[in-house]
Design brief:
The chain has 390 residues and is of the alpha+beta class. It has 13 helices and twelve strands. A hairpin with a 2-residue loop joins strand 9 and strand 10. Helix 4 packs antiparallel against helix 11 and helix 9 runs antiparallel to helix 11.
Length: 390
Amino acid sequence: MKDATDTRARSDAAALRSHALTPITEIAVNPWQSLAERAIEPNGYYLPEWELAVNASAQGRTDASTLSAWNDDRLIGLMPVISMWRAYRIPLPALVSAHPYGTLCVPPLDREMAKDAAAQLLRQSRNAGAHALILRDMALDGAAMQSFAEVLQRDGLRPHVLHSNLRACLDATRNADELLHDALGTKKLKELRRLRHRLAEHGAVCFEVARSPKDVAAALKIFLALEASGWKGARGTALAQNDGDISFIRRATAALAASNQCEIVTLRTGDTPVAAGIVLRHQDRAFFFKIGVDERFAKTSPGVQLTLELTRHLCADPAIASADSTASPDHPMINPIWRGRFAIGDVLIPLRSGDPVVAMIRTALSLRKLAREPARQVVQFIRKRRQRSA
């Protein structure tokens, strides 16, 4: 607050600190990138190249604000946020993690000053007029969540988990063949080899990894076409079906490929691509963003075949220790292959002790979930049927 009235010349960082909420476009890329390198917990979806591309054009995800934490001119914490009205259509005073397309909203906190960063983000939320902060898609046992919990405990508060589930992940430090054998067993692997031989009847099966910006751009065209050709295209949710989403994914993948933080993997039979996936990389973790398959080859399980190859690829990379599937908790394709699990969920953080508004916010979210649950179950049933064909 002192910075807001100081008549001396101020740095850009000090100017940002004078406001509780800042448009995300006003956060300079260099300090954000530096923070990402020092982040206590990896999240490829809050890298600046990705989130700024999302914010610029992705359908329904533009114009986010940020809470930011600073130590002098060093950015030590960052959280993209939107209002509760925008997130849930609930007119109550809370801020909510801005969804970065990928299903992980762990904010980057400087590993050397994580608790200080968390405290500043909470204080800025209060200064913005919020009574609660809702952290969506948080790794519940992760270092970032632990930092928030310790700050809250110090202030006599505690976080409330709104809902949680277990998500598939890969221990990439293991030998791939041993891991796959333990996960699938001899009989299932034999069946998958048989299906691969059937796929090879159309041409030699080849697994390709695009890394350079030029190769990623070419592979992205293949991915977009595959995704739009399948059930996502029929449902109208393929990236290629929205101009804003196309602009976002082109910009994001090109920018991250330039820093070796994006790969697109493709499985071909002969000259025909049958499956492709986008993979982000941050620190020692990979993030399996999306997959697209040619459903004409559904009987050979091209999505599974691609995931087997991706598993071998990641396990062979000494720079990668783990991979987040970023998939739904009951995903029928990835869950049997990647048998690791970690808890993820939405967390409500009260910003004042004994605040009755927080109880109103929790009740409103519970009622919303209750009203939406039947429709969600129908959608999940349809998705499972379609994903099994991949």
